[in-house]
Amino acid sequence: MKHEKQQKPVSENTQIDFDAYLLENEKWLTTEGAMEHLNVSRSTIYRWRKKRYLPSFKLGHIPIYPKHLVNKFFMRRALHNVKEQ
User: What is the value of pTM for the model shown?
Assistant: First the structure.
């Protein structure tokens, strides 16, 4: 028997579309900056990054986070929590 892939609802889609022009004047956060901005621990940032919830790029060996995508992620999580209540 074949196992069929279950489609994720649009609201749970983890893909984030971004425009290269938006990144031109983007503010970038380090891990410490993202921790302070989201008010979470370092392990939470790493866990979200590993699960690909939090978009990040590597500059050498240092992960950096585009601030507008971090804000988008934060708003999506906040809206998800509101819908559950």
Answer: 0.65
Query: Within 13 Å of residue 67, how many CA atoms lie on the same side as its CB?
Result: 11
The Cα-based distances of 72 to 20, 21, 32, 68, 75 in angstroms read 16, 17, 18, 6, 5
Q: 3-state class of 64 per DSSP?
A: strand
Structural domains of the chain ordered from first start: 26-84 (1.10.1660)
DSSP H/E element including 80: helix 67-84
Question: What integer is the mean pLDDT of 25-31?
Answer: 90
Q: Does pLDDT of 62 surpass 90?
A: yes
**What is the predicted pLDDT for the residue at 10?**
43
What's the rounded Cα separation, in Å, for the pair 62 and 64?
Answer: 6
Q: Are 29 and 18 in contact (CB under 8 A)?
A: no
Residue type, 41: S
